[in-house]
Write a structure and sequence with these properties.
With 175 residues, the protein is of the alpha+beta class. It is 37% helix and 19% strand. It has helices spanning 3-10, 37-43, 61-70, 109-118, 131-139, 144-150, 157-161, 164-171; strands at 18-19, 22-23, 25-26, 49-50, 56-58, 83-89, 93-98, 104-108, 125-128. The strands form two sheets. A seven-stranded antiparallel sheet has the order 3-4-5-6-7-8-9.
Length: 175
Amino acid sequence: MELAAKVALVRPRMGELVRYGWDYELGEPAEPAGLPPALADLYRVFDGLSTRLGFIDILDAEGALAELAKKGAGDLHDPVPNLLQFGNIGYSDALCTAIDSGAVHLFNGDLYIDAVKTGESLETRVLAPSPVAFADEFLFGPRYRELIDLVGGYPTPEDEEEDEWRLLIESLGFA
């Protein structure tokens, strides 16, 4: 099943996902201009995603454009000059796409800060060939738990038991 079909099945169930007053958000498709083509393809399927307490937070197209505008705009060292951040996973890991190839990378935000300070480059983990492939496999697919493990796992066993997003995609047969 393609990502757009998965999103169409999830969208009507978003209202079921509320915990501690934090609404889950899944943006409507958008037609963003000015973004790298692979990232624009993702926003044509959905424009941002935010899950429980921001554990998974995919910026909307406007947020991604703001990140793009910041690239090269300062005098600080950029340890990932070819990467554009378009989201966060967990509480300190950044999700980026390569501006030229579209490949999706993940890196730890604390290590990023250290690399800025030391002037060194930062190693990243490549997760998928494109943002659409990433969303299909990790956010709406069978590799969701792997993504959570990559960022250190759930903070508590209760968080795993109460992860409504995981429960939803499992109930739909995606994970």
